[in-house]
Amino acid sequence: MASGEALTTSGYIVHHLTNLTVGHGFWTFHLDSLIVSGLLGLFAFIGMARLASKAAIKEPGKMQTFVEMLVSFIDQQVKDTYHGKSALITPLAVTIFVWVFLMNAMDLIPVDFIPLILGMGGVHYFKAVPTTDPNLTFGMSLTVFAMMLIMGVKVKGVGGFLHEVFTVPFGAKLAPLNLLFRVIEDVAKPISLALRLFGNMYAGEMVFILIALLGLWQLPLALPWALFHILIITLQAFVFMMLTIVYMSMASESHG
Amino acid sequence: MNINATLIGEAIWFGVFIWITMKYVWPPLAKAMADRQKLIADGLAAGERGKHELELAGKRSADALRDAKAKAAEIIAAAEKRGAQMVEEAKLVAKVEADKVVASGRAEIAQQVEQARAELRGRVADLAVAGAERILKREVDARAHAEMLVALKQEL
User: Which of A119, A137, A208, B134 has its CA 20 to 30 A from that of B119?
Assistant: First the structure.
């Protein structure tokens, strides 16, 4: 709490849950989410790209071994689930897992640490965990949704795709009902994807904030919650990745 | 929870990162891993082949060893036989030679004996003549001489 506001409980919580913004109305940008997610992504993916460009066949270094282990684990998940031909799925899954994991991991930085430092520089609001921002989770899930539709059309053709939309699962006679089912099914996908990640991370962050309000008691409580949170961080990144693979696989296989 | 243009920004970030991963991270890593798998598979196959070859070479060397032993035994037997034969031959030759030497020795001895005998005969004759001369110069005792000469003759 470096901003000098009244030190009330709700004030503290609200302060921690307010984004650093520019712009008005719809054209508001959450600078904190954009900067943190962008920096983490650039750091991770440019680092991985540099590593991959120097990938040694005979004597891989420790970092290369680690990245290869991760990537081949994800590739195995993709191979087990997705049976299409697209070469996009594994890179997509790797991107999701690594990026979401890193953004979630920002949750492990003590809640007052970054606001305190930035507060000294005159920045009063800063949410350091981008995955607690629904804009990010929906940005990702809608991108996945778009790729899912494109994949469906690409694999089945426009005719095949429309045929599936109108005839599955009840046959051509109940075309409107089929369309309704399909719309509900498909719309539920990005929403559940985005809200699951957002909800988990937001709730986790909230618990950290509440623990931070306990004064001395936060010391024995923050550590176990952080340890437990490591599990949630990894699990949520994995779930987002896995569901994306499943959705892509469903989009490239014909229903029923 | 307010949705705004941040969503677009995050979607752009997401797209950029997918693009980086798809273009610069995944292909080289996948290639390196596939190449390494191939390298390992090749290495294992080569190892297996080497083991097989070693086994064959072991068999071959055992065969060669056995052949060599048999051949060596054969050669030794032949050499022993030849050695015995040579000893026999040498013995034979030596015996012949020895016989020859002995025969020639004997012949020589006989010859020398004969020579010595002839020489002695001559000398005795001379002695007899000399003795006769001396006796003749003194007196001739026919009887005594006759006895002496008879004795001489018998001695010869």
Answer: B134
